[in-house]
Amino acid sequence: MNAHAVENPSGAAPILEVRGLRTHFFTRAGVVKAVDGVDLTLAPGEILGLVGESGSGKSITGFSLIGLLDEPGRVVDGEIRFNGEDLRHASAEQWRALRGRDIAMIFQDPMMTLNPVLRVDTQMIEAVRAHARVSREQARQRALQTLSMVGIPAPEERLRAYPHQLSGGMRQRVAIAIALLNSPRLIIADEPTTALDVTIQGQILFEVQKLCRETGTALIWITHDLAVVAGLADRVAVMYAGRVVETGSTADVIGHPMHPYTHGLIASIPTPESRGRPLMQIPGMTPSLLNLPRGCAFRGRCPRATDACLAEPQPEQVRPGQWVRCWHAGGPRNP
Ligand SMILES: Nc1ncnc2c1ncn2[C@@H]1O[C@H](COP(=O)(O)OP(=O)(O)OP(=O)(O)O)[C@@H](O)[C@H]1O
Ligand SMILES: [Mg+2]
Asked: How many CA atoms within 13 Å lie on the side-chain side of 246?
């Protein structure tokens, strides 16, 4: 068994178990290994922050988990178990039943969810009635309820609006409300608040966290911003070049990062102490996923790299529930 995914502090049976997920794109230039051996475990009500730089494979991980990969992308290996059900081999029909009912996705762009030519009420009522035998009025009441949950003022009025009549922040809240409509067991949120201003982002994070606590909905929150997950997530998984290089409780990963890449991410967050001083940056760029170097993919940018890093590091537990893929986790050349 892959020990990397065993951690589950709450002890509840996991709602999602991902083992050795590999999603590759078969392009003319070669095989892009966008996701290359990802393990994740999520308990009911748990919030996991999936963080990493642009191109590290966060969105493709999310799309793989909800069966929304486009050609030439394919899940080529691994296991995805949701509530005990095998999703890796789910049929199109199974996916249609699951999506929007048991698993929902919130995209960075709300117009991926919203239909521009339909009023909000039409879309929300349809989204409820696609999965539950309820009257239009009952569905409308549910729509009102979820709009209130995400802090939308005057929800009655918003229901009658078309998407273009709403501000960007409102549109995103409506998209989030649609994800919540059928009380899914799992929500995958791909940077949904990145484009919003910080006060609205804070409010939405607060509401979403409250909802997970109250309803037991599990959440994967994808973001490049470690500061966002610090206040939101129970656990964090840090992705680099298609792999999870460090995972653990948010307090451990942020308080005692063991992977040099996590170190770099944390050091590049502005703090009151860093004011007026140049922020630390991780040197170099994410490597191309077409031709990854042998061994640790981070070694070209890593201050701790040695010849040992020419071999690929396997996940090791450094403290209970905290796993790191690094030959030099915690030292000896600690930056
Ligand atoms: N259709 C595609 N064809 C080829 N490669 C792709 C395709 N879609 C994504 N990729 C590659 O997969 C890798 C991971 O992409 P992904 O969108 O998951 O990154 P991300 O971590 O979500 O980044 P960002 O923070 O910018 O959203 C990238 O290198 C990207 O170029
Ligand atoms: Mg992305």
From this structure: 30
Supply the residue whose CA is at minimum distance from atom 29 of ligand 1.
55
CA 268 to chain CA centroid, Å, is: 21
Supply the pLDDT for residue 204.
Answer: 83
pLDDT of residue 1: 39
Please report, in angstroms and rounded to a whole number, the separation of the first and last CA atoms in the chain.
Answer: 33
Ligand 1 mutation pick, 27, 56, 109, max ligand atoms within 8 A of CB? 56
Mutate to test the pocket of ligand 1, among 58, 63, 64, 109 (most ligand atoms within 8 A of CB): 58
Atom from ligand 1 closest to the CA of residue 62? 18
Residue with the smallest CA separation from ligand 1 atom 6 is 25
Q: Are strands 47-51 and 235-240 parallel, antiparallel or unpaired?
A: parallel
CA–centroid distance, residue 20 to ligand 2 (Å): 20
Which residue blocks in the chain are alpha helix, DSSP H?
58-65, 92-98, 120-129, 136-149, 155-159, 168-180, 198-215, 226-232, 250-255, 260-267
85-141 tens-digit pLDDT: 999 999 999 999 999 999 999 998 999 999 999 999 999 999 999 999 999 999 999
pTM of this prediction exceeds 0.85:
yes
Rounded mean pLDDT of 79-83? 96
